[in-house]
Design brief:
There is one protein chain. The protein is an alpha/beta fold. The protein folds into two domains: about 120 residues, Rossmann fold; about 190 residues, Dihydrodipicolinate Reductase, domain 2. Helices cover about 40% and strands about 25% of the residues. Strands 3-2-1-4-5-6 form a six-stranded parallel beta sheet, sandwiched between helices. A six-stranded mixed beta sheet has the order 8-9-10-7-11-12. Strands 13-14 form a two-stranded antiparallel ribbon. A hairpin with a 3-residue loop joins strand 11 and strand 12. It is globular, with a radius of gyration of 20 Å.
Length: about 325
């Protein structure tokens, strides 16, 4: 089995997750890490005995790698992507593609000019329940779609950790928007959203946003997004003329009660190592897919243009909250 040499840029929560997952896969080897705060990179580098750097250019200039994972903050994707593209390395980029449509277009231009493969880490596509819902919708098992309902709520600590670096739409709604676009194969043509910022207004962001979405075939959807929930919860329902499909977050998991309240520990989205090398974690499957596609020269399940569409809809949601009017995604 060929071993893929991979570097990770960004050693925050997701970056640390990817570094660990790389050390657990038999066909991957972590070769280096970078973070703008060098001390944070050094802590991860020392843990896994790999070199650490303060930026992607230095890492890629001194370490020979086959691919790069970029897990920097949402508004700091552009420069690491530029560095990886200059080095000619395939990129796994943590969602969202970018913090704005304009920056997303620039990222697509950079990777296209360099002819570098780019996959955006839309992890929901690797959840087997959502994959089953995608198949049911695409195969016509539900008949003609009537409506879609989705919910994705995170704890308040997540909103405080992000501290205004991106909106709740870019942080959470982009997951469900991407899935809706992927599952339906349609475009979202109109967005109307309402929101408020009672708890996180100090950071200039909304606590909760309720969005109505209209697709180009007339299907309608409502999306609830918030980061003031006691625990992470999500829900999806698609209703058609001949059937329906539903997904609820506690369906797979164990109930945990602790100082921070009641939570469902879902192994599909667990950040903790799994015993016996079990492959249940969506992030692990996502990473395996990325590496396998590179090795075989096959297309990724998430294409850059699709990731840009999700950013465009999330941006339109934020515009609608600000304007109080329906908005059209770019």
């Amino acid at each position: 089995m060929d071993v893929m040499r991979v570097a990770v840029v960004g050693t925050g929560m997701m970056g640390r997750l990817f570094t660990r997952l790389l050390t657990e896969l038999p066909n991957a080897r972590l070769c280096g890490v970078a973070n703008r705060t060098l001390g944070k990179a050094e802590a991860v580098g020392e843990k896994y005995d790999v070199p650490s750097f303060s930026n992607a250019d230095d890492l890629l200039g001194q370490v020979d790698v086959d691919a790069v994972i970029i897990a920097t903050d949402d508004d700091e994707h552009l420069e690491p992507v530029r560095a990886a593209a200059r080095a000619g390395k395939p990129i796994l980029l943590e969602k969202p593609l970018a913090a704005s449509v304009d920056e997303g277009r620039e990222i697509l231009r950079i990777v296209a000019d360099a002819n570098v493969p780019l996959m955006v880490a839309q992890c929901v596509r690797f959840d087997p329940r959502y994959a089953a819902a995608h198949a049911a919708i695409r195969n016509g098992d539900l008949g003609q779609l009537e409506y879609i309902t989705a919910r994705r709520n995170a704890p308040l600590r997540a909103g405080r950790r992000i501290a205004g670096r991106c909106s709740v739409s870019m942080f959470l709604a982009v997951h469900d928007v991407d899935f809706m676009l992927w599952a339906t194969g349609r475009r979202i043509t109109q967005v109307y959203a309402l929101g408020h910022g009672r708890l996180l207004g100090e950071f200039g962001v909304q606590d909760t946003i309720i969005s109505l979405l209209k697709f180009d075939d007339g299907t309608i959807a409502n999306l609830e997004t918030s980061w003031v929930s006691p625990s992470l919860t999500f829900y999806f329902e698609a209703m058609g003329t001949e059937g329906a499909v539903q997904i609820a977050s506690p369906e797979i998991g164990a109930l945990q009660v602790g100082a921070e309240g009641t939570q469902f520990a879902n192994p599909l989205y667990s950040f903790a190592p799994l015993p016996g090398g079990q492959t249940l974690n969506v992030y692990q499957v996502e990473l395996m897919h990325f590496l396998d596609c590179i090795a075989k020269g096959q297309p990724f399940i998430v294409q850059p243009e699709e990731a840009l569409m999700a950013v465009s809809v999330a941006e339109a949601i934020d515009r609608s909250v600000a304007s109080g009017q329906a908005e059209t995604p770019e």
